């Protein structure tokens, strides 16, 4: 008997020597063990191997303390310190049921851990591993901690050793120091630190909250790319697009297709099909049918009135006062003026009586205050005015120097090419529009024209002056022309080198025409136009009440003529330079854009809940307690969620009738993974095929 025992040990211990190339690859080979005994059970021959023992199959080592080896069926059942080691992948647990003919290892235990070559650790209780294809499958909950501390968990998933690739399905949750993600599916390329997400994605970041249908995350570059119905919510903004790319390291990105950005604090919307941005300092450019919308709601009627502005390119950015171009800064200061009411100089005054009031009622709904053409002002006074008066600029002042507020933020808005504006009571077109917060003037260039009801106003350039976000004056600079239509045939006209319209409480109370002022007023009698009044002077002031002209003052070199309509010559009907541009006028907001504005999202936190990472709590309790992703979490809620999920014990694969235990049909130990072949996965597979082909050529 002693001789037989020694013979068996020697026979079964040949694996201590280098493995011979002649070993049959489809058979399991015992490399070493302390004792190996043969016995028969119900007519089947088994070998009981006491270890530490080591088996080899498919270039994979199986280690254990004790194993029952069915040599006829090529099956091993191993317990105690079980391990599977294969080309950098290490799998540990409490028991292994290994089916050699199917190349399938079913590893079970209180904690089953798979560690790959990059030191990513996946923990679960149930993991099946195909040693030939190097594919693992876990179910009923698992969590992975990658080499950098990123947490990934799901109810079930796959591991592809050759491709260095993990697939997570159902209750997928991911967490980094700054990012928390929930999704239906997640692919993680461990060699590239690259993650792909699908289905009902919800992401919480230090900058805000996001939802979408699919996305990717490149960890090394901190590069996010989300697609399909993307919604981003921050404290001040609501952002929508079909394609969002964000480079966190550069604080830059691009939004594409159906872009909608809503600034909830400023009541502003931006629409378009492409938006490029960067931060520090802020810079935004919108192209491909961009639209800028600003709106306000009447406090009494709750009716919202919106202004729509479109251009071929919209650009919004921030600079500092000290880094601005010195010429641009000087020009902005020169344009600056302090809004003041002044008493007009005495001149020939006309009270609007019944007949003349009727004619004047069609004057534009603007009123202006006479002002000097010289807008220059002492530099010290400019600085003190900015410091005292403008709350926006004052909020960003760090210190005042002799001539600069070096750290003061300056905000810019540019609209380039084919600018159109629509508001219920105002429409406009021009080639470009410019604004900066130093002079607080919105400037229009390139044949600008405004329409207000029946009136049209044009000039070489038009300036809208603001103070504390309120419009107080509109300047029509050079070749200013006002036309007001009367009965579709007659046009009241005022022409001058310069015009001012003064505004108070969003209403116009005075209108001035300055230098070389000329006017044509058609005068009605008994509701019929009977004559034309021609006026010429150096300055004209029109005062309005309730948007109706009540008083007109003519100053210096006054000429006046009244011509009956039947004596009127054709050339007298219009002033030189008359051009009625009504066909260019946007008739409604759809002329600016036909895009549908999506409703604002209220209280998203009532609908969406941050990840709890219950599987991580179970398998990595210390990391769960110390991770930055978990610090705002609730461990009690995570335990409750874990208990709920584990009470719903599920089969290995929801898409089939496969049971979860080892009594399942052996050829179904790993359900078919209907994974998506993504561009990055296809690229990796192509590289693998090329590598295999090169190896074959070398052989």
- List the total number of helices: 9
Summarize the biggest pleated sheet. 37 strands, antiparallel
Uncertain regions: pLDDT < 50 for 5+ in a row? 1-22, 352-404, 652-667
Percent of residues in beta strands: over 45%
Q: Mind telling me the CATH superfamily name of the domain at 343-377 and 412-577?
A: Lipopolysaccharide (LPS) transport protein A like domain
Task: Tell me the structural class.
Answer: mainly beta
Radius of gyration: 40 Å
| End-to-end separation | 49 Å
Principal-axes shape call: rod-shaped
* CATH class term of the domain at 343-377 and 412-577: Mainly Beta
The CATH topology assignment of the domain at 343-377 and 412-577 is: lipopolysaccharide transport protein A fold
CATH architecture of the domain at 343-377 and 412-577: Sandwich
Q: What's the average pLDDT?
A: 80
Measured as a percent range, the helix fraction is 10-25%
Count of distinct strands: 37
Assembly category: single chain
Topology:
Blueprint: H1 2-12, E1 29-32, E2 35-41, E3 44-57, E4 60-70, E5 75-86, E6 89-99, E7 104-115, E8 121-130, E9 135-138, E10 142-145, E11 151-154, E12 156-160, E13 165-175, E14 179-189, E15 194-205, E16 208-218, E17 223-233, E18 237-247, E19 252-263, E20 268-278, E21 283-287, E22 291-297, E23 304-310, E24 313-320, H2 326-335, E25 348-351, H3 354-360, H4 379-389, H5 391-394, E26 409-423, E27 426-436, E28 441-445, E29 449-452, E30 455-458, E31 461-467, E32 470-486, E33 490-504, E34 507-525, E35 528-545, E36 548-555, E37 559-564, H6 614-619, H7 621-626, H8 635-647, H9 679-698
Antiparallel strand pairs: 1-3, 2-3, 3-4, 4-5, 5-6, 6-7, 7-8, 8-9, 8-10, 9-12, 10-11, 11-13, 12-13, 13-14, 14-15, 15-16, 16-17, 17-18, 18-19, 19-20, 20-21, 20-22, 21-24, 22-23, 23-26, 24-26, 25-36, 26-27, 27-28, 27-29, 28-31, 29-30, 30-32, 31-32, 32-33, 33-34, 34-35, 35-36, 35-37
């Amino acid at each position: 008997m002693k001789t037989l025992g020694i013979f068996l040990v020697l026979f079964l211990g040949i694996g201590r020597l280098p493995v011979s190339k002649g070993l049959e690859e489809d058979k399991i080979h015992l490399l070493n063990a302390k004792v190996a005994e043969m016995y028969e059970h119900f007519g089947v021959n088994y070998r009981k191997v006491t270890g530490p023992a080591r088996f080899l199959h498919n270039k994979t080592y199986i280690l254990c303390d004790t194993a029952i080896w069915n040599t006829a069926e090529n099956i091993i059942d191993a317990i105690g310190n079980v391990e599977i080691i294969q080309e950098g992948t290490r799998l540990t647990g409490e028991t292994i049921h290994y089916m050699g003919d199917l190349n399938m290892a079913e590893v079970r235990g209180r904690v089953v851990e798979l560690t790959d070559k990059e030191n990513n650790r996946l923990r679960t209780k149930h993991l099946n591993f195909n040693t030939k294809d190097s594919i693992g499958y876990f179910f009923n909950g698992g969590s992975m901690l990658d080499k950098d501390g990123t947490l990934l968990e799901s109810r079930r998933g796959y591991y592809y050793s050759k491709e260095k690739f993990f697939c997570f399905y159902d209750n997928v949750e991911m967490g980094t120091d700054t990012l928390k993600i929930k999704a239906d599916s997640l692919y993680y390329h461990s060699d590239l630190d690259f993650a792909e997400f699908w289905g009902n994605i919800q992401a919480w970041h230090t900058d805000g909250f996001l939802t979408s249908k699919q996305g990717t995350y490149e960890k090394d570059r901190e590069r996010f790319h989300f697609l399909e119905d993307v919604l981003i919510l921050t404290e001040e903004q609501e952002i929508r697009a079909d394609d969002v790319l964000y480079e966190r390291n550069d604080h830059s990105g691009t939004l594409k297709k159906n872009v909608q950005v809503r600034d909830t604090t400023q009541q502003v919307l931006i629409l378009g099909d492409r938006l490029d941005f960067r931060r520090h300092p802020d810079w935004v450019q919108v192209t491909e049918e961009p639209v800028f919308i600003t709106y306000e709601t009447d406090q009494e009627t709750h009716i919202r009135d919106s202004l729509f502005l479109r251009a071929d390119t919209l650009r919004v950015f921030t600079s500092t006062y000290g880094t601005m171009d010195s010429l641009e800064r000087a020009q902005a200061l020169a344009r600056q003026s302090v809004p003041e009411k002044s008493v007009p100089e005495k001149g020939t005054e006309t009270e609007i009586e019944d007949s003349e009031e009727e004619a004047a009622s069609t004057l534009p709904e603007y009123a202006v205050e006479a002002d000097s053409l010289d807008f220059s002002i002492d530099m010290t006074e400019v600085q003190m005015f900015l410091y005292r008066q403008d709350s926006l600029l004052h909020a960003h002042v760090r210190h005042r120097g002799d001539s600069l507020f070096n750290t003061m933020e300056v905000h810019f808005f540019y609209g380039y090419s084919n600018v159109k504006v629509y508001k219920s009571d105002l429409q406009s077109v021009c080639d470009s529009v410019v604004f900066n917060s130093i002079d607080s003037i919105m400037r229009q260039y390139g044949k600008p024209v405004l329409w207000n009801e029946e009136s049209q106003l044009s000039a070489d350039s038009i300036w809208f002056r603001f103070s504390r976000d309120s419009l107080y004056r509109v300047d029509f600079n050079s070749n200013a022309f006002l036309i007001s239509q009367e009965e579709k045939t007659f046009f009241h006209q005022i022409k001058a080198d310069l015009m001012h319209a003064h505004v108070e409480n969003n209403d116009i109370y005075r209108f001035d025409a300055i230098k070389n002022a000329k006017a044509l007023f058609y005068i009605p009698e008994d509701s019929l136009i009977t004559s034309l009044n021609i006026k010429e002077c150096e300055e004209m002031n029109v005062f309005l009440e309730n948007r109706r002209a009540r008083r007109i003052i003519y100053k210096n070199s006054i000429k006046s003529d009244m011509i009956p309509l039947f004596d009127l010559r054709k050339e007298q009907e219009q002033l030189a330079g008359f051009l009625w541009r009504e066909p260019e006028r946007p008739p409604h907001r759809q002329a600016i854009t036909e895009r549908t504005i999506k409703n604002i999202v209220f209280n998203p936190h009532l609908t969406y809940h941050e990840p709890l990472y219950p599987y991580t709590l179970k398998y990595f309790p210390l990391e769960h307690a110390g991770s930055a992703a978990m610090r705002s979490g609730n461990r009690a809620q995570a335990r409750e969620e874990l208990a709920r999920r584990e009470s719903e014990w599920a089969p290995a694969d929801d898409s089939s009738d496969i049971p979860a235990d080892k009594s399942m049909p052996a050829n179904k130990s790993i359900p078919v993974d209907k994974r998506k072949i993504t561009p990055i996965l296809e690229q990796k597979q192509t590289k693998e095929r090329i590598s295999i082909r090169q190896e074959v050529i070398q052989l």
